[in-house]
Design a protein that fits this description.
This protein is α/β, with parallel strands linked by helices. The protein has nine helices and seven strands; from the N terminus they run E-H-E-H-E-H-E-H-E-H-H-E-H-H-H-E. The chain binds nicotinamide-adenine-dinucleotide.
């Protein structure tokens, strides 16, 4: 599963799952654009990749702002001449029960997790269709499949992301471009570290394998879906969750 000569963009890759996906793709030879709303962390990850002889570049972009997304895609194409792999990973949570959820909490979560992926996909797909090769990998969540109390906004955004992916997959399939979802379960990152001990115990009880996943569990799945070997897989939702959701 060699990715040399491929160019990848990973959104939200300054930390957590996105960072690990970026390091893994770079480790397999891809040139990787580290894109994040946080310039400091994005710069650090790009430096880390270059320090181990990989090819990388940091570009600050907020995925919710169309002009910044357009500039991210233009700068990537300008620097590397092509864009083969897009990982829509940037995401946020604003958890609270439905009864207490503000319109602002709803909008921000939908904007980042769902509209951000739409904007990036729309901007990049032109390049992939022209090349007749592309891989779009959207990081959703198992809560987009089964729901979760306290996450109406997040579950709706991730369920929407699954619909967006399946539609994209159908629209671009004839040109050698695939679009798939990875639906992580409970992964040890900043996002889950801020949960209460009770909530963490609750999650752990629901995992047949009995432990939280690590960002590398998601990164290996992403590297596979990005590869030539995964060419016949599209519109798929791959749960990487220690068995929490068995469909
Ligand atoms: P994280 O909070 O550690 O990292 C998210 C990254 O996205 C950060 O670097 C942040 O700066 C960036 N980001 C946030 N808003 C952005 C924006 N508007 N534009 C660009 N970048 C932005 O989270 P994580 O746990 O690594 O999660 C990564 C993805 O995986 C998210 O989509 C999340 O919903 C999903 N996910 C995580 C888990 C988990 O258990 N950690 C489970 C299921 C799904």
């Amino acid at each position: 599963m060699n990715l040399s000569k491929k160019v990848a963009i990973v959104t939200g890759s300054g930390q957590g799952i996105g960072r690990e996906i970026a390091l893994t793709l770079a480790g397999r030879g891809a040139s990787v654009v580290i894109s994040d709303i946080n310039p400091a962390t994005a710069g650090d990850v790009a430096t880390e990749i270059k320090a181990s002889n990989g090819k990388s570049m940091a570009i600050t972009a907020d995925v919710t702002v169309q002009e910044e997304v357009a500039s991210l895609i233009d700068q990537t194409a300008g620097a590397f001449g092509q864009i083969d792999i897009l990982v829509n990973n940037a995401g946020i949570t604003r958890d609270t029960l439905l009864m207490r959820m503000s319109g602002e909490d709803w909008d921000q979560v939908l904007l980042t997790n769902l509209k951000g992926a739409f904007l990036c996909t729309q901007a990049v797909v032109r390049h992939m269709l022209k090349q007749r090769w592309g891989r779009i990998i959207n990081i959703a969540s198992i809560v987009g499949l089964i729901g979760n109390a306290g996450q109406a906004n997040y579950a709706a955004a991730k369920a929407g992301l699954i619909g967006l992916t399946k539609t994209t997959a159908r629209e671009v399939a004839s040109r050698g471009v695939t679009a798939n979802v990875i639906a992580p379960g409970f992964i040890d990152t900043e996002m889950t570290r801020k949960l209460s001990d009770n909530a963490k115990q609750d999650f752990l009880r629901q995992i047949p394998l009995g432990y939280a996943g690590s960002p590398s569990d998601i990164a290996h799945a992403a590297a596979f879906l990005a590869s030539e070997e995964a060419r016949y897989i599209t519109g798929h939702v791959l749960t990487v969750d220690g068995g929490m959701v068995m469909l």
